[in-house]
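User: Design a sequence. Structure:
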């Protein structure tokens, strides 16, 4: 009998070890972010977010962050997260138009909105609560967590380019539909290269300008090779924080609740940190010999005129190139959400974390049920 009891105890012990291993495997989180560690979205949207996840979950979720292209190349993040190479990560949707055509259709509207909070809150709500957008993530085995926005894109150039006369014929790094169309409209040449390759392009004269947010002066060291910045507002770049749907569905409701709660905080913290970093960078840029130029009236007017065309461009591109169904209705629904956020945020202090988070939670994350979201 004693031998039988000992054998049973041993079996139970082995099973406990097995169950422990399974639990550990289920709660380990691999997260990939291909921007450098110094970039605001990496710092606030991922590094700080992951610390918050582990602390809030009391160690139930154990995330590990990979930055740069250590785990996945920039264009491979959608497929890598879809296939479970990473459990969560940052997706730049313009790399994958055939996989997420609805996202790329709405992305064309980013030329209109330069406010981080309006843009990021609107795309987050739209992707999380609109059924057509949700279907896009389901068919890619992804669960949408939040959207990011850059501050306004500027012209970061190797010479003073601030007018319709000086921009003609210049080679300008620009990606996404609406932005290259504006570049062509002012007689310049759009060049479709990754932001990670822009430094070399500027240094070697393959580019005259890069269209990027001001933080790239520091995070990508553009100010070493580009000493002139024109403060024209060329919209923003919207991107995606998404997770592997299979992994998500293996988590328990408490763990999914932690992820949704903390990602909302991370979205707000990224915006506040981003804006603060940009102001610091503007001050530091002057010390680095960078000159900031206001756009001449003709150049500024060309941007405003192009914003008025962005809606029709989105509808045309979504229908003809991306083959998205019922694009006018899709765009109209997004415009309604964006207009709502412009109204809600009109008088909100962009440094008031509590006010921003309260709005985001009330309008988006409190409307998402962790027990059912992403479970179909």
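Assistant: Done.
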């Amino acid at each position: 009998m004693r031998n039988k009891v000992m054998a049973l105890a041993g079996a139970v012990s082995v099973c406990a070890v097995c169950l422990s291993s399974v639990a550990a495997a289920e709660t380990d989180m691999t997260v990939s972010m291909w921007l450098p560690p110094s970039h605001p979205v990496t710092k606030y949207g991922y590094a700080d977010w992951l610390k918050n996840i582990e602390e809030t979950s009391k160690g139930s979720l154990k995330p590990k962050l990979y930055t740069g292209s250590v785990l996945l190349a920039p264009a491979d993040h959608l497929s890598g997260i879809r296939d479970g190479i990473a459990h969560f990560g940052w997706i730049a949707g313009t790399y994958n138009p055939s996989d997420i055509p609805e996202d790329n259709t709405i992305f064309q509207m980013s030329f209109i909105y330069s406010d981080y909070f309006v843009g990021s809150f609107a795309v987050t709500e739209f992707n999380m609560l609109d059924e057509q957008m949700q279907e896009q993530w389901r068919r890619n085995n992804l669960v949408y967590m939040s959207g990011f926005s850059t501050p306004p894109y500027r012209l970061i150039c190797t010479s003073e380019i601030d007018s319709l006369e000086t921009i003609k014929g210049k080679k300008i790094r620009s990606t996404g539909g609406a932005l290259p169309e504006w570049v062509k409209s002012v007689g310049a040449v759009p060049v479709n290269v990754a932001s990670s390759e822009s430094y070399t392009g500027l240094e070697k004269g393959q580019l005259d300008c890069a269209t990027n947010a001001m933080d790239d002066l520091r995070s990508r060291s553009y100010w070493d090779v580009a000493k002139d910045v024109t403060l024209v507002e060329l919209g923003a770049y919207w991107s995606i924080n998404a997770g592997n749907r299979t992994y998500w569905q293996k988590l328990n409701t408490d763990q999914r609740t932690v992820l949704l709660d903390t990602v909302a905080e991370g979205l707000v913290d990224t915006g506040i940190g981003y804006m603060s970093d940009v102001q610091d960078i503007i001050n530091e840029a002057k010390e680095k010999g960078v000159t900031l130029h206001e756009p001449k009236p003709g150049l500024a007017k060309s941007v405003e005129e192009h914003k008025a065309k962005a809606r029709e461009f989105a509808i045309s591109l979504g229908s003809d190139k991306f083959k998205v169904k019922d694009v006018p209705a899709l765009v109209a629904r997004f415009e309604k959400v964006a207009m709502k956020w412009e109204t809600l945020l009109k008088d909100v202090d962009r440094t008031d974390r509590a006010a921003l988070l309260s709005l985001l939670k009330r309008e988006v994350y409190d409307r998402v049920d962790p027990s059912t979201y992403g479970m179909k």
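The chain has one domain: 2-153+234-290+299-367. Confidence is low (pLDDT under 50) at residues 1-25.
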